[in-house]
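Appendix C reproduces, verbatim, an entry submitted by the partner laboratory led by Prof. M.T., so that reviewers can inspect both the input and the predicted structure.
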Amino acid sequence: MLCNGFTGPMDLSVYFEDLERRICAADEESLAMQWLSFARCKLHEGYFAPSRPKSAPAVIWPDVNINDCINDIDMMIYQQIKGVSDILSEGGGELLSLRPNYGTGIIPSMYGAEIFIMPRESNTLPGVRTLPGAMAGIRRILDKGEMDFSKALAGRVFDFAERWAEVSLPYKSVRRYVYMYNPDLQGPLPLVELLWGSELYLDIFDERETVCAALDFFTDVIIAFLKKFHALFPPFDADYSVEWGLLHRGGVIIRNDAVMNISGDMYREFVKPCDQRIISVFGGGIHFCGKGDHYIGHVSEIRGISTINLSQPECNDMEIIYQNTIDKGIVIIGLPSAEVKRAAASGRNLRGRVHCGAALAAWTDKESK
């Protein structure tokens, strides 16, 4: 396949061999211990900003466009291990990691949501279109109650995992220190919104029974999907896992971006019980983009929650966030460095429970590098 900077068929072994040479076991073990200390709240002041010695590549790693990776598993593996190479090159403090990188439509595509590929110039993961008939489509899903993880993008997730196990086998350090983390399964509310459409936010009042049934069903789907995925690729260990290279207690970070569209009381009533079910099974935390200070107090009451990740502190009253996270023993991972430095300069006690710097695998935060 000819693609971007490649002039012939892809030979993954060239890049695996480069990573194998550059991964230093002592550095990776030391970094993992630092992350574990942070996740266990063993730090008591300041913030956490780890790094590793830089390790330059011996080969050229061409850039690739994500559109070329969606239907080519080896290209997708290359795209992910290039991220590992970038972390090593820049001396980033994240643990080395990769995921089946198929976007937010993995579960919706299982249920017939049409996949749409973004314009090539966007170099952005694909999305999905709302089901025709919206609520009627949701009701058909609930009537069937199926969970076929071989379909559409979900099938590619497991094809990716199977291929990774094959091609990484000869490389001891890669297999030991590059962690496979969860695909982007979203959370129950975002999944229902993706399939139902924006009408959901009106129908939630008039079609309460269907909305609640859909949220419950997709909670079950997420739990079943993660159990299957973890059986193939267990997390970091029994108590901790890695997400975007950031280690945290528990086995999942629920993506809750759609929750910004509802009130805190609606989160407590409709979504919190679903998030509680997932956290009760796996432990872990919640991610959100945009505004979350209006429901963070309810999130902090979830039994077993350990971690919060937010990408846009500028959309939030951060004092409310801090009072309902680090002041309650819940760590924040991947917080953009500008906010960490602002809070520290203002005299806010971060209690050693804030990780400074968004991961390259999640979004760009060059200021933290």
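The two ends are 34 Å apart (CA to CA). Additional entries are available on request from the coordinating office.
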